[in-house]
């Protein structure tokens, strides 16, 4: 991390700029990023806060794109609130499935992948002796994984 004070001609005053320089194996040039901030935190903490903020924004985007959190078209507040709460509940359930079911996988699967592969599946759901069972076709490529989660 490099901490700088800069004032290009287009800025009205001097500002703090934190430069983040990363070297990755197999790459010829380093990756360089700049964060303009008014924070008094040390440069390393500024980068951590910025990275966490970016991750939160990715989770919000994921919820909007896959679960349609932004579709609050009812004129009544309570109806929009209920729809958003259902979306948040669905997101948290999918997040738990992703966290525990896909543990150990190198690739972090997206919510959309989970929905297409595990949720939008033709299955027969039956209730037998105090237990729900989901039966999928034997030709379903992810049948064993599906049974591990929902069976």
What does this entry look like structurally?
- Among the domains are: 57-120, no CATH class; 121-151, no CATH class.
- Helix content is 44%, strand content 21%.
- It is built from four helices and five strands.
- The chain has helices at residues 43-67, 77-101, 111-119, 143-150, and strands at 2-6, 15-22, 31-37, 123-128, 131-136.
- The protein has a three-stranded antiparallel beta sheet with strand order 1-2-3, with helices on one face. Strands 4-5 form a two-stranded antiparallel ribbon.
- The longest helix has 25 residues, at 43-67.
- The N and C termini lie far apart (49 Å).
How are the strands of the biggest sheet laid out side by side?
1-2-3
Helix-strand topology string: EEEHHHEEH
Helix count equals: 4
What is the first-to-last residue Cα distance?
49 Å
Strand content range:
15-25%
Q: Into which percent range does the helicity of residues fall?
A: 40-55%
Q: What's the count of strands?
A: 5
Mean pLDDT: 83
Segments where pLDDT lies below 50 for 5+ residues? none
Shape: elongated
Q: Please give the radius of gyration in angstroms.
A: 23 Å
């Amino acid at each position: 991390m490099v901490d700088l004070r800069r004032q290009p001609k287009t800025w009205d005053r001097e500002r703090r700029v934190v430069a983040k320089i990363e070297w990755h194996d197999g790459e010829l040039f380093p990756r360089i990023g700049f964060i303009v901030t008014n924070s008094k935190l040390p440069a390393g903490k500024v980068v951590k806060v910025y990275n966490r903020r970016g991750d939160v924004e990715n989770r919000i985007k994921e919820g909007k794109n896959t679960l349609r959190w932004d579709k609050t078209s009812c004129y009544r507040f309570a109806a929009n609130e209920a729809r958003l709460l259902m979306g948040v509940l669905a997101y948290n359930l999918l997040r738990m499935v992703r966290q525990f079911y896909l543990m150990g996988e190198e690739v972090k699967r997206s919510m959309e992948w989970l929905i297409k592969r595990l949720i939008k599946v033709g299955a027969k759901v039956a209730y037998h002796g105090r237990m729900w069972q989901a039966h999928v076709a034997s030709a379903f490529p992810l049948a064993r994984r599906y049974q591990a989660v929902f069976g």
